[in-house]
Amino acid sequence: MVTRDTPWPEGTPCWVDLAVDDIDRAVAFYGGLLGWNVQRGGAEVGGYSLVVHEGANVAGIGPKMSPGVPTAWTTYLATEDTDRTAARITAAGGTVVVAPMDVMTLGRMAVAADPAGGVFGLWKAGDHTGFGIANEHGTVVWNENMSRDYAHNREFYGSVFGYRYGDIDDGMIKYATLDLPHGTVGGIGELPASLPQEIPAHWMTYFSTPDIDADVARVPGLGGTVAQPPFDTPHGRMAVVADDQGAVFSLITPPPTD
User: Which CDD domains match (predicted)?
Assistant: First the structure.
C-alpha cells in the first residue's frame, strides 16, 4: 500500500477518472464490483464524484467534457507546470486535446494524445494532490501505455517526461517499465498483432482485487462484459473487462508477498 498527501513527482501516474454519460449507473456498477464508496459531487463541480477508500481519494467519476467523447478511464500524469509540459507534448509530436485550464483551486489540468493516439491527462496539484492511496485492493495498482507504434511512443514519453525504460522482452511482446529517479511508475508496450485493429492506442488502468475470478464472474450480472477472462502472469492473475457503459479497464490479483 502507498499513501500520499503531497504532490506526486513529475511523470508519475497520479490520478484516474472515468468520463460517463450516466454517473448513477457508474456508481452502481463499481459499487457492486469493487465495493466503492463514492462521495457525490454537487452542481458546482458538474456532479464530479470522488471514490474514497479508507478516508483517501482513489479515483474520480464525472460527466463527459463534451458530446461524442468516449466513455473511458483517463490516466493523469503529474506535472510541475501544465503549460510547459503541454508545450513539450506538441514539440515531441503529440497533440493537446484540451488546453491547460484551472480547476478551481484543485489544480491545473490538460488532456493530450501521444503520437499513436493514446489519450492521457496532465495534472498539476493544487488542493487536490491526486491519489491519496494506491496499491491496495480496490484502488489503482498499475497504469500502462499500449500502442502499435511502440518505438515512437518510447521516444515521445522519454522526451516529454524523462522516462528511462526497463526493457522486458520475452521474444513475444515488446514491453518496458517507465522508470524515474524515484522508481518504476508504470509500463509501456506494443499491442499484440493478434488483437483487432479497431482497438486503439490507450492508457490502461489496473485495479487490484483479492479475488479476480469472483469479481470477473460478477461483471456480466452488473451489465458489463469480459474482454479477456482471468489469466496467470508472473506479476499476478489478470483480466480485462468493460463496465456497463463501455469503459475498459483491467483487474489484477497480485501474487502473494512474503
Answer: SgaA_N_like
β-bridge pairing 248-253 and 202-208: parallel
d(CA 56, CA 47): 19
Three-state secondary-structure class, residue 39: strand
Residue among 209, 205, 203 at smallest CA distance from 252: 209
Grid cell for residue 6: 503531497
Q: Residue 102 corresponds to which cell in the numbers above?
A: 484551472
Tell me the CATH architecture of domain 2-129: Roll (3.10)
Contact 204, 249 (CB under 8 A): yes
- Model's pTM, two decimal places? 0.96
Distance CA 144, CA 94 (A): 17
Helix pair angle (82-91, 150-161), 10° resolution:
140
Contact partners, residue 49, CB within 8 Å, separation at least 6: 23, 27, 38, 39, 40, 41, 60, 61, 62
> Which sequence spans correspond to the domains of the chain?
2-129
Burial of 32 from C-beta contacts in 10 A (0-12 / 13-18 / 19+) = middle
- Cα 225 to Cα 216: distance, rounded to the nearest angstrom: 9
